[in-house]
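User: Here's a chain of 185 residues. Predict its fold as tokens.
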Amino acid sequence: MNWTLARWALEGTAVACLLAAAATDFTDRIVPNRLVVAVMIAGIAIRLMSATSIWWLSVSVWAVTLAVLGSLATRNILGWGDVKLIAAVTLLVPPHKVFPLLISIALAGGVLACLYLGARRLVRRRQASPLPLANPPRWKALALLHREGARIRANEPMPYAMAVLGGVALQTAIETVRCWHVTSR
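Assistant: Prediction complete.
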């Protein structure tokens, strides 16, 4: 069996699930458990396929991450779906790369928070324009933005699964540049 191909398929599955989770979180403010479980399964499979068979350490890091972030969720600082998703993505990387991944997620969350703070100022300044009564397909994006504006005005939480996706993308980009730099010598 071609392990490289299998690993790419698992990583692709994880990315597709992260994209779907971010989209669902943006539209419905929920992170479906089936997507979190799919990311977890992909991560565990990737860890089992890695040259260093310390998958148990990855699972331990996942459990600690879930416990620490879970304590924040019980205080309503983070949403439970976001906590489960963040813990799941820790399984996608080796244990020694979890901290940089969490930093990348936090940085992406900071960027997202700045965008939402700016949007909150913008939305509060101007009145929401009413949508046409008929909602033809070409107005779907406008309707989605209108609903997001209402959520921002109501001080609802931001879709943090987007930050998780952004953090994973940032960490992947950093690793790709490092790999490219090393191989281009």
